[in-house]
Design goal:
180 residues, alpha+beta, globular
Length: 180
């Protein structure tokens, strides 16, 4: 068999393998993670309800009623107060600070609840009226879907699932957050 035919056969087998096809979405975990073009932090401030999240170690005790309240300080930093209801019924609260790391967009922040440790907080999608937000970070290990109300319309939720898939996240890993 001529060398060209062998190369073509191997290339066809590799490109059509299930592993290659599984990586076919527009973005992959290795692709750069785009953020929204611009965030008005004063409009972003206020109460957000967690609609869904990737499970993570720092929220493992949260059974539901997860909220985040953001308040822009005079110096441009953002005061963060996260709360959740534990399975015991007790409310757990964590207070932190976020600092903008990309002043051109305000879409990239770093947040700390325990100085000197910071985590990246990137706003990946945002409703035109700031009614929903999708937040993640470049490694795609963390992901949250947030809304201004405790419940989200299923059509919008499905749209956001498609969006997170476009961004290289696995939507099947998202866990819906019970809200009262």
């Amino acid at each position: 068999m001529p060398t060209r035919r062998i190369v073509a056969l191997v290339a066809t087998l590799v490109l059509c393998s299930p592993l290659a096809l599984a990586r076919a979405p527009e973005a992959t975990e290795d692709a750069p993670l785009p953020t929204v073009a611009s965030v008005d932090l004063s409009r972003y401030a206020g109460t957000w309800y967690e609609i869904a999240r990737y499970p993570n170690r720092f929220q493992k005790r949260c059974a539901g009623d997860v909220t985040a309240v953001y308040d822009v300080k005079a110096n441009g930093d953002v005061r963060v107060v996260n709360s959740c209801r534990e399975s015991s019924g007790k409310t757990k609260t964590a207070k932190g600070t976020a600092k903008v790391t990309d002043r051109a967009t305000n879409a990239k922040l770093k947040v700390t609840f325990f100085w000197p440790f910071y985590g990246k907080y990137w706003i990946l999608d945002l409703g035109p009226g700031y009614e929903y937000a999708v937040v993640g970070e470049p490694s795609r290990k963390y992901l949250w879907i947030l809304g201004r109300a405790p419940a989200m319309d299923d059509a919008l939720y499905q749209k956001l699932l498609a969006r997170v898939a476009e961004l290289g996240y696995d939507p099947s890993k998202l866990v819906r957050t019970p809200q009262r």
